Amino acid sequence: MAKAKRQVNKTPLHRWKWVGKAPQDRPMRGELIGRTKEDIIEQLAKQRITATKIQRRSSFSGRGKITNVDIMIFARQMATMVRAGIPILQALQAVSESLKKPAMVALTQQVMEDVSAGDSLSSALAKHPKQFDRMFVNLVDAGEQAGALDQMLERVASYKEKVESLKNRVKKALWYPTTVMTIGVAVTMLLLIKVVPEFESMFQGFGAELPVLTQFTVNLSVLAQQYWIYALSLLGGNLVLLKIVAKRSSRLAYQLDSLVLRLPVIGDIMHKSAVSRLTRTLATTFSSGVPLVEGLETAAGAADNRVYSHAIHEVYQDVTSGQQLHFAMRMTNRFPALAVQMVSIGEEAGSLDVMLNRVADYYEEEVENKVDALTSLMEPVIIVVLGMLVGSIVVSMYLPIFEIGTAL
Question: Which carries the bigger pLDDT value, residue 396 or residue 340?
């Protein structure tokens, strides 16, 4: 019996759509998270609802991948529960029942099982390093020891909110021009493969030599028709291969991150984003009572860019050997002079966490301004480029018709 129960518990959670009847035959419908149909029927029975139809949602919407936003919401909800004086186990149970993503519900239930077995909350969270990073665990541990768990959870949630906001701004800077240009190239290829051949067959009946621009477009269309599949496969294959090699080769990954930092405009945004995130991480850990050395280790692990991760490792080594933080940062030649100066003032005034937060706020605002400026700059550039791509094809197709009309 116990063995069977363990096997059931290993069954993954899914989201189920149900239709049923409440007392007095009132029709009802909704969604629940459970392992099997029997589990859903049992949950509905507790609510005095008789299920008439239960259907598991497709795998596309299935368990769902746990994101940083999910962890942020978890931390925010747990902080609210703990502040209200609810015991940890009951708080975890309440959070589990409020979550809508099956994978997150399963994770919360695993944490509940570990806590009920005698583990502290920080120890239970540490068993899931992919979802709860080192900083999350360290702050929860500090909160448990200081009796300020709700404050630490709230601090983690605020930190993750700001980091996600910064990530979204950087993604906007990267994806906006890339997406628009990709659409432009796709439209151009569609014209070359589908539209130009129709004109070409018409031109063959003219029996006259085509203008240079028209002939060039026709030749380009022939190449596009013959090799577009191979070109697309080669591009996709190279991107996948580069991603695989970068995962296995730390040297190549470092060079790619370094290349991104040297790009015009985008590189400056990535620089400021890395500085903001690292100083925000250090400020959060240091203000929570975590030693500076441990905070540097956490910051190195939280860096998205390997160049700055390496720089933080250098800072860690120098600080461990007795150097001041601002001097160690200056020695890496990676951190802006303003950031180093503000950290120096913070160390001298005994308010390092305050200054680190101000540095993070300043560079977050810089990133936002840069992204807005890039978006405003790219809009006219993209319009001109797309106009030239599509317009040149359209003009080249109508040139022979114009010449015939002039001759007549």
Answer: 340
